[in-house]
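Lab notebook, design round three. We kept the backbone fixed and only want residue identities now. Task for the bench partner: fill in a sequence for the structure below.
Input structure tokens:
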């Protein structure tokens, strides 16, 4: 009985995380292409910008496309768990860049978002309706 209650309680958490880590990367990716909300190239650390064979804005376009693909992967594919890991790793790479650039406050936010994305990956294992979920769970696994 406790296991069924736990699954029911986790469903809203799963959907909230899935929607957040689906839509936010898509919106952020679109903004990196359009620069409507912020001029994204200013967040590229000069140390990394000098290593990349693209102009900062062109690099941000590429970053935006990757974020859009990751968000769509979380939202619309049966591989939510895999794409949640990709989003987490991506956010930590962004955090590393932000730390090198001196944007510590934003880096902390992205580190926490990466951890939250891993929570989505974990929760997706526990729910039977989530793609890739385990079929039989013991109470210790919940």
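Proposed sequence:
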């Amino acid at each position: 009985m406790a296991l069924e209650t736990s699954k029911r309680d986790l469903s809203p958490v799963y959907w909230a995380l899935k929607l957040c880590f689906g839509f936010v990367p898509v919106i952020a990716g679109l903004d990196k292409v359009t620069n409507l909300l912020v001029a994204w190239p200013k967040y590229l650390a000069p140390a990394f910008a000098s290593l990349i064979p693209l102009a900062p804005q062109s690099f941000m376009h590429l970053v935006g496309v990757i974020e859009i693909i990751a968000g769509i992967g979380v939202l619309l594919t049966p591989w939510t768990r895999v794409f949640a890991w990709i989003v987490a790793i991506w956010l930590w790479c962004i955090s590393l860049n932000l730390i090198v650039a001196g944007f510590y406050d934003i880096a902390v936010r992205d580190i926490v978002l990466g951890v939250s994305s891993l929570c989505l990956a974990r929760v997706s294992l526990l729910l039977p309706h989530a793609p890739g979920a385990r079929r039989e769970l013991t109470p210790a696994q919940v």
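Keep this in mind before ordering anything: The longest helix spans residues 2-34.
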